[in-house]
Structure formats: C-alpha cells, structure tokens
Specification:
Blueprint (H helix, E strand, L loop, with lengths): L7 E2 L7 H7 L4 E4 L7 H18 L3 E4 L3 H11 L9 H4 L14 H14 L9 E4 L5 H15 L4 H11 L6 H8 L7 H13 L8 H26 L6 H21 L5 E4 L2 H4 L15 H9 L4 E15 L8 E5 L7 H9 L4 E4 L13 E4 L15 E4 L1 H4 L2 E8 L23
Parallel strand pairs: 2-5, 2-6, 3-4, 3-5, 6-11
Antiparallel strand pairs: 1-8, 6-7, 8-11, 9-10
Length: 430
C-alpha cells in the first residue's frame, strides 16, 4: 500500500496539542497499547494523562488491572502522608502473574506524580487510580470478609457462605472452572446472595470521600466475585463468552466509577488496544466479541468518548514465552509488509507521529481492513504472523493513533509472583 497519510510530529509533550484539541469535551478518554510490556506506551500514556488531569480536569485513571491491588494504590495516593515506604514497595501488591503490567518503574513515575499532585488538591478533588479487571476472585473474597467483619452487619453470613463455597478449590479459580465442568453444583447463588446482602445492608450514604470509597470498594469486590464466577463458568463454553463477560464487567465498573464521582466526572482508561479499540471495526465482530471501546461509545455517545491507539514498528518487549513463564526481554521484529505499522514506518522513515482519525477518513486505502499488531503477555515472535495481527479499519477503530517507530521493553520491578495465575484463554496472551 502506498499512500501519503497526514501526520503530526511526536517528540515532546507539547506535540500532543493536536490530540488535546481533538479530545475536546470528551468525558472518557481510552488510551491503548499494542503490548503489555513496552516502555514508551506507558510513558506516553502518563504524559497524556497528566495533561488531561491538569488541563481538562479528569478525575481518575482506571486500568486493566485487578480491583484490590489498584484500590490499595488509590488509597495511598490520596493521603497527605507517605505510609507505604516507597512506591516500589507499594507496587508489590501486584504480585500475581503478569506482575510487570503494573509493577514496573514506569508506573512508579506515574504514582509518584499522582501523589504529589493530590497533596495540592482538596480531598474531594484528588485523582483516583482503580482497576477494571475481573481476575481477582480470591483476593476480592478476602477483602469482603475483612470489610463485613469489621462492619459487623448482616452481610457477614452471606460473605462467609461465598468464601466457604470456593474454599475447596484453594485460591485457584482455574481449579474451580475445571471442577464445575463435571458437576452441577457451583458458587453462583452464593456470590449473588453476597452482592445483594452488601447492597442492602445499609441505606445510609457514608460521609466523605474515604468512607464512600470504602463502601464502594466492598460492593465492587462483591461484583468482581459475581462476574469472576460467571467468567470461569463461561470458559467452559469457549468462544467469545468469557471475553465478553470480562469486557462487560470492565464497562460496568467504569460506569460505576463515573457515577461515584458525579455527573460531571471524567475518566482516563489504560488498557490494551484489543479492549479500547472499537471491536466493531475489527474481525472481533465476526466472533460476536465486544470490548470496552465499543461499549463506551454505545453507552455515552461517540462525541463523549475518545479512543487513542498505540503501535510501533520494531524493538523489544517484556513478555513470557508461555503462560505463567518468567518474563523476559524479547525482540520484536520489523512489522511485515502490508501491515499498519509497516506502512507508517515506510512513510515516516523512522520518525514518531501522531495521527488523527478525522484527517484519515477520506483516504481510500484506509477504507479496507489492514493488519495491526497486537502483543499480549505471552509472545513468541516466530509465530507472530499467525496470530498477532488484527485486521482493523483504523480511522473508525480509534480517534487517534500514536506511532513510535522504535520501542524498548519496560522496566519491571523485582516482584516475586505468587502461584495463582489467570487461565490462558487466548493465543496472543491477551
């Protein structure tokens, strides 16, 4: 494909001015990534997020991470004092594989900045950091038990029944999924009862942000348990079922967070391109898969949702060569001909660029799907051409695209992983 694409240089924070103008008054800004292990995706998302917070008053960042660990970070960055020793110590909370996604030095810089920024703000206006994902079944059950036992209310028995239902499977949700494949008994009723009990335990609205968030977090952990149980049951059906449970959960969590922060609240989302880039403009649609980008546009309207994708031509990445493997630095080969990344590399001759979809929509060559690289937490470059390229209508999948020609692996913290990992569901590791 040979075409001349309109681009904007991308070197410093000031080069983001066209992006900020294009965001306009959007309430939700979704920032993607083409891998979970590339330094530049994290640092550019940090730069964009700082500008959105400072210039457009965004209220929180929500990421493709687990609720309990992210909420621990959220609580820490909203306090005046430093109670966590150091940010690397705080980020040890992300100790389940893949630990490097949120336990890395690039996130250390973001958390440091958020804490410093928040100390200058009134308590009710401090920026939050939350997790959208559904994998933390066991941790969320433990958090609920601690909460209800401290509160001493009527939800204690429901929480204990849910905890006891999962107890025979240790802390391994995959063992639960395998077990219910052969018996009719599961824990669906127990987690739903627990959620109802938490939501009806008290009609009184807590006073102050910290109390409201504490009650919200308990309710959210119960919602995680409900949807995690659904997720692991959906694994048995295969296909798009479990993917859709997960992305619908992330969208439900985003909606709840926006409601928590009020009618004028604004959200920044950090997730993989496969979650933020509207699924209707990829081959995911043929598989009846939905994602957060699609659901957000449908729920809030396209003018209120801005999606920015990321990608690169070649470099290195942190990933495992199989699910649960020790992370390593892996070379990312040059993107193949007829891919989106190769097209940009060829035109830009090694330069970085920002592209805006409003300037791309009239280009005939982009009216057809083009292969667009996606690297997950599992990556084997020798098989890249067989599963790492998502056919995409770029100008419709995203509202903007940030292209970094040469990228480097991010810098993981030395956090030892525990033995619990989510099941491997997708060939790309995403």
């Amino acid at each position: 494909m040979k075409t001349n694409l309109p681009t904007h240089p991308l070197h410093t924070a000031s080069d983001l001015d066209p992006l900020m103008q294009a965001v306009g008054d959007a309430r939700i800004v979704l920032l993607g990534e083409a891998s979970h292990g590339t330094a530049e995706y994290y640092t550019w998302r940090t730069t964009i997020s700082k500008r959105l917070i400072q210039e457009k008053g965004f209220h929180f960042i929500a990421v493709e991470g687990d609720w309990p660990g992210c909420f621990e970070v959220n609580a820490a960055i909203k306090k005046d004092e430093v109670l966590y020793g150091s940010v690397p110590q705080l980020l040890r909370t992300f100790n389940r594989w893949p630990t490097w996604m949120w336990g890395n030095w690039e996130i250390v810089g973001l958390v440091d900045w958020l804490h410093a920024h928040n100390r200058q703000q009134p308590l009710e206006q401090r920026v939050g950091f939350y997790g959208l994902d559904v994998y933390s079944l066991w941790e969320s059950l433990q958090e609920i038990l601690q909460y209800v036992e401290k509160q001493g209310d009527g939800a204690v028995q429901a929480a204990q029944r849910a905890f006891q239902c999962f107890e025979p499977y240790g802390n391994d949700p995959q063992e639960y999924a395998q077990a219910i494949a052969y018996v009719s008994e599961d824990c669906q009723d127990e987690v739903n009862d627990m959620l109802r009990a938490l939501r009806t335990q008290s009609a009184r609205q807590p006073d102050g942000l910290a109390d409201r968030e504490s009650k919200f977090a308990a309710d959210q952990n119960a919602l995680v348990a409900v949807n995690a149980e659904r997720y692991y049951r959906a694994m048995l059906r295969g296909g798009a079922a479990s993917w859709n449970v997960r992305d619908n959960h992330m969208m439900e969590t985003l909606t709840r967070l926006l409601d928590l922060h009020g009618p004028d609240s604004k959200a920044i989302i950090w997730e993989h391109n496969t979650h933020v880039g509207d699924a209707r403009y990829t081959d995911m649609r043929r598989e009846d898969m939905v994602n957060v980008g699609q659901l957000a546009r449908e729920a809030y309207g396209r003018k209120n949702v801005f999606i920015a994708g990321f990608g690169s031509y070649e470099g290195s990445v942190i990933a495992g060569n199989k699910w649960g493997a020790t992370p390593q630095k892996i070379n990312v080969p040059a993107a193949p001909r007829n891919s989106w990344e190769h097209l940009l590399h060829q035109q830009l001759q090694g330069e970085n660029a920002l592209l805006l979809s409003q300037e791309l929509r009239d280009i005939p060559e982009l009216q057809q799907p083009i292969g667009h690289r996606a690297i997950g937490v599992v990556y084997r470059p020798e098989f890249e051409q067989f599963g790492n390229y998502v056919p995409s209508l770029i100008p419709d999948r995203y509202d903007a695209f940030l292209f970094i020609d040469q990228t480097q692996a991010l810098h993981p913290l030395p956090t030892p992983a525990d033995q619990q990992t989510p099941p491997d569901l997708y060939p790309s590791g995403e």
